[in-house]
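ok so for the tutorial part 2 we go from a plain amino acid sequence to predicted structure tokens. step 1 is just haveing the sequence, like this:
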Amino acid sequence: MSATPQELKQRIEANIPGAQAEVTGDGHHFSASVSAPAFKGLSRIAQHRLVYDVFGSEVGDRIHALSIQTKASESENES
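step 2 — the prediction. this is what the tokens look like for a chain of 79 residues:
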């Protein structure tokens, strides 16, 4: 079963505290832009690893490709 941008967005936001994600894709190749307070103080590589860890072995398999842009946000004020 193919993944959807909405599924990836929901999973990122559910697994990274305070994350806000925008995800686009065609069912196999995705691009995600994620901001989260959890990224503050982390290297870009560590930030990307947090996002990849949400999907584990699905990246390269069910999710053929995932391009990530990350940004540390100050705090999560919206619910």
